[in-house]
Amino acid sequence: MKNEDGYSLWLRYFRVKDNALIEDYRRDLINIKVMKSSPTMEVAKDELIRGLSCLLGREITTCTGIKKGTIILGVKADIEAQHSINLEPEFTTIVGDGYVIIRTIYEGKDIFIISGLSEIGVLYGTFHFLRLIQTHVPLNPLSIKKSPKIQLRILNHWDNLDGTVERGYAGCSLWDWHRLPGLISPRYKDYARANASIGINGAVLNNVNANSLSLTIEYLEKAKVLADVFRPYGIKVYLSVRFSAPMEIGGLKTSDPKDKKVIFWWKSKVSEIYGIIPDFGGFIVKANSEGQPGPQDYGRSQADGANMLAHALKPYGGVVMWRAFVYDFNIKEDRAKQAFNEFIPLDGMFMDNVLIQVKNGPIDFQPREPFHPLFGAMKETPLMMEFQITQEYLGLATNLVYLGPLFKECLDSDTYAEGKGSSVGRIIDGSLYNNKLTGIAGVANIGTDRNWCGHHFAQGNWYVFGRLAWDHTLGAEEIADEWIRMTFSNCRELLNPVSSMMMTSREAAVNYMTPLGLHHIMAHNHHYGPGPWVDQGRPDWTSTYYHQADPSGIGFDRTVTGSNALSQYSLPIQELYANEDTCPENLLLWFHHVSWDKQMKSGRTLWEELCFKYEAGVEAVRKMRQTWDSIKDKVDEERFTHVQASLGIQEQEAIWWKSACLLYFQSFSRLPFPKGYDLPTHTLDYYKKKRHYFVPGIYNPFIKK
Ligand code: GCW
């Protein structure tokens, strides 16, 4: 098997091996007729030619007439105008950049049509068509109609202008700012292709811990080049802005959103941006959080800040994505409650081109969190989802953790905001509250590593984010299945084991890191490995704040006897979660401080259950290793050994988490490990003293070391 380095992602277009299928494909797919020439239609055509030629092992060309086996590529209006085909019935449910793919008889000829209302729709349809062949789907019959459920499907890059990536584990930033705008790396185009293939239509180029320089003319001209490369692929460019930019690069004395000069400065800046990038998407802002400046520095509200920017962007159709990730250690309130307290009073006060971007959970991208209580509570304001694709809290780039189940768990959670069936997914797709503007963002895991994401399987997390952004009702397993087929192979003997590895990997990570609702017990600052003993520095960045372990038990009481964060959820959730016995066990220690000897559903005590879960996490990784080893001859050696070695590291890290956490918690529980338990091989002191230098990803430009 030929070695592969992973650069091609899921767009490998490997020649179809199945004999019967390839015969059918070759018979049915002959040539391509493109309705018109434009930058987007060119890339759609090129992709189809490239993809089909490789998949079929035969050169596919374009044609002018229509023959049997022609694939017509064009927007609905063009096809209807040039041929007597009425596509109306096919398009009844299509909206936005949706598409149809049909097989039909035209003037007695068996043909295919890939069409959309927009050219980008045609491009999306093209990628879907290729996916059918990549995943060995028979093409007869064929009638596919797809529309995106969410409008803005965006990657957030936490990339700094110096080339580092905050929480990035796959090398440096893709954007070579130093050599832009002169040098245009071919990777920019491949990045755009990959995104378009899964329906991503926006990229925030720079870190939310933003540097004002990105708004200077020099950097805007660099960003323009990226926007030009991305445009044919339907990807808009957005920027993170630093709220104090008017002072830092504008020479003003204040950044007060009510100050006339400040308002004028932003208006002129926005007008300058649109002069350079006419289809610029808009701004994202992290304000008054983790040391970032914001409107509250001037006694103004988050809405005042967001609306000031929204005003400036409005004439051009730009949006503001205002982050709800706001908390302050000077406020003596459970961190999990703070965003809700801050934003609920502002509901309905934002301009209509503002979205509030909310992380999936109320703390911070932990292996498991309940959904954020703002979902379902802010009824007058469109909320946008923010997931983290990069694995800041899930093992960086050494751990194989497929995030599909994590994303789905949140999207499918019922908020009960309007009664049963008020899922988070329905809130962000706008259907529950009839929002006109909808969006979803993922913090990217992409860098300059040859395989883009550091770990070959981390590519699957980029993929699943895009697919769910397009349609959050898809299943994590069916998306994994597509991805495996395209990335590795369609062979059953590989498909089933790899799918089972992926589908169990998230729960495994939860188990060996933070089982039963534990959270935020990682090492300080770089977040690599366990650190349940961290108790120095600002309290809301310690671990002891979150696990509250003491001789009586462990867990954060967020019920009425504690912080009462539970009161921020709907009644049915409150009722279920308020009681230790009915609270789902996988979130028990999130909501309750539970005694060590509490009897769990399994019959074990809480302490034993904790031991059991940590061990189950380690065991699951061992199982993944065995599974991977068993398919050695089904994967090329280069990727096989890379994943194999990473799984070896993952097992060591899982053991490290388990041992460090249990030894530490045991110092409170004072209970022995269960009989026959696989005991830690080192002392607690050993784990506490472990130091790690130069861990990747800790490049917050505003934290002084
Ligand atoms: O999880 C935390 C990260 C920070 C990040 C912050 C945020 C960009 O540790 O590195 O800063 O979240 O989301 O703003």
Write the layout of secondary structure elements.
Blueprint: H1 19-28, E1 31-34, H2 39-56, E2 61-62, E3 70-75, H3 76-82, E4 99-106, E5 109-116, H4 119-134, E6 143-146, E7 152-156, H5 186-197, E8 202-204, H6 217-230, E9 236-241, H7 245-248, H8 260-276, E10 282-285, H9 302-313, E11 319-323, H10 335-343, E12 354-359, E13 383-388, H11 404-411, H12 424-428, E14 439-443, H13 459-470, H14 476-487, H15 492-513, H16 544-547, E15 553-554, H17 571-578, H18 588-591, E16 594-595, H19 606-630, H20 637-669, H21 684-689
Parallel strand pairs: 1-2, 1-3, 3-5, 7-8, 7-14, 8-9, 9-10, 10-11, 11-12, 12-13, 13-14
Antiparallel strand pairs: 4-5, 4-6, 15-16
The structure holds 4-O-methyl-beta-D-glucopyranuronic acid.
